[in-house]
Each structure stands twice: as C-alpha cells, then as structure tokens.
DNA sequence: TTGGCTGCAAATGGTTTGCACTAAT
DNA sequence: ATTAGTGCAAACCATTTGCAGCCAA
C-alpha cells in the first residue's frame, strides 16, 4: 500500500511536481479503494473526510495531472460525468454494466488479448488501449421483476 | 433510402409522434451520411444547410427522441460532447480510433459475438449491447513522424 | 381545431480558470 | 526564497428547459 504511494511520489517528483498533502490525500483514497470507480464528486466527498478544507477544483486539477502521468485513467460510462480509477498493472479488466441496478462487474479475459492482436495485424493498427463495456441485466435483476423484460 | 425514411415515419406515427419537417430534415441528413458519426453541432450545421431556421434545441430534443425509439444511438468517444449515428441492421461494428489523426476505422467481427456469448454465460448476464473501442495509431500515422513513437 | 413541436432565450450544472494566498522544495 | 499548488468564486459551455407561437394530423 505504502509502496504505491511512494511510487507515485517518485513519479511526481521526477516530473517536477510536488507531493502536496492534498495529492497525498487523493492518492490515499484511491489506493484504499482500488476497486471503486470514482466520479469527481464522490472522490471529493471521500477526500473531504480526511481533509475537510480540500477544494473541488483541486480534485479536478489533480485528476487531470494524474491521468497525464498515467497514475489514473478516465472511464467512459454512459454517464453525464466522468469517472476515474487508478491504473493498475493487471489493468486489462473490462466492465459488465447492469442497466437496471447500475452494478458494475469487472472481468479480465485472455481471449481479448488474442483478439486484439489479430485485429491490430488485420488493420495495421498500433494498438495502445481499449475500452470494452457490455450493457445488460445482471443475475439479480433478471430474476426480479424490476428488470424490464419486454 | 426513401424506404428508410418511410420506416422511421411509421415508427414515429405508431408511437404518436409527428413527422415534422425538422424531423424529416434531420433524418434525411442522417440517412445520407450513414457512415458518419455526428456531434450535435455537426448535425445542426448540416441540417441548417437544408433548413436555415432550425434551432439547436430541436436537434437535441429529436436526437433524444430518436434514441428512445432506437432510430439513433449515442456513441461514447473520448470527447467532451456526445456523438450520434443511425442504428443499422448490421450494427455490430466497432471502432479503431487513431490517437494522432482522430481517424475512426469501423470493423465487424464474428469472434466478438462468440466472445460475448461465452461471457454472458459465465457471468449469468443478460447482454443487451456493448461498446468496444480500440485506441492507437493508424497505418498512416505510424509511418509518419507525427505519430509519437516514444 | 388542437395538442404536440418549434425557436428563442434563459437556466442548468459539470468542469475550468483567474487570482491572491499558501506551502513544498 | 521561489514558484508550484490551493481555495474560492466567477466564468465557461454543452445541454436542458420554459414559454408563446406554429403546424401536422
């Protein structure tokens, strides 16, 4: 855990950015919630629990900075606001998103890597990153009456 | 071409919506540019060529309507504004997006369907739709010096 | 005829920015 | 000490909404 923070500290310093207390607080929240995807507002509220004086603009500015340093990346959900999460080593996970309860199931898949390789060759495309999202109804919502089964 | 317009007319009428001249103009532009993805602004400008008096709010309101009727759907590019395109029968195409020149290559793939089926079973997920986007550098940008090869 | 549609302009709300102050190095 | 970073509030800008007039059915 602390290793990660140290790693990010290094990344900041080596790019001539300072490790301010706000940045430390934001990163700590992200590290302690590796499996969550935060909206800016969510992250803001979480950081305020640790540092009530933090400003919303600081969250915005630092998420932008962290993304440029590949510490975080933006997720593109079908939402009106942006979501962010830490970039992790085993970062080839994707999302199954329930259209009823908004639950997000993450998955990894080997086959996707092969698929991507084939695609890259076929279209002579130098693949950098991909976003894959599946929308549908999760187990619980299929079985309840709330999931609209037309 | 005209078949499509008639089809959309039916869909509108049967849902108690009128085929106004503005709606006809918007649909015509979309039909005549099936392979383009429009930002709202782009579509607005295109429709204005035919009907200079059309209002921007009308474009917004009708794209929302068309999406609810499954005539169009929203694309989620890494952009600050939403993009739309017509829903088509053979609609399992996805996007390779060049990070240098912003070119968008569309592709279809059989394997993706199989992959999706396996995933649905594995996670007991009732799949409705998916968004798959690959980011990287296209052929031309790999070979020019403009694509940054770090 | 008449209720849905439209154009206009004002409002909304997530995000960005200017500025004076603060703090990490 | 110096300059990057911060909090605040105002600005920004894509999108939404209220309303009076208009037109497809």
UniProtKB/TrEMBL annotation, chains A, B:
InterPro entries assigned: FUR (IPR002481), Fur_C (IPR043135), WH-like_DNA-bd_sf (IPR036388), WH_DNA-bd_sf (IPR036390)
SUPFAM superfamilies linked: Winged helix' DNA-binding domain
Cofactor note as given: Binds 1 zinc ion per subunit.
Cofactor(s) essential for the protein: Zn(2+); Mn(2+); Fe(2+)
CDD domains: Fur_like
GO biological process per UniProt: negative regulation of DNA-templated transcription; regulation of secondary metabolite biosynthetic process
The entry's keywords: DNA-binding, Iron, Metal-binding, Repressor, Transcription, Transcription regulation, Zinc
Superkingdom, natural source: Bacteria
One term of GO molecular function: transcription cis-regulatory region binding
UniProt-annotated binding residues for Zn(2+): 98, 101, 138, 141
A Pfam family assignment: FUR
Family: Belongs to the Fur family.
Alphabetical list of Gene3D superfamilies matching this protein: 3.30.1490.190, Winged helix-like DNA-binding domain superfamily/Winged helix DNA-binding domain
Name under which the protein is recorded: Transcriptional repressor
Entry keyword annotation includes Magnesium: no
Binding site for Fe cation: 92, 130
Keyword Transcription: yes
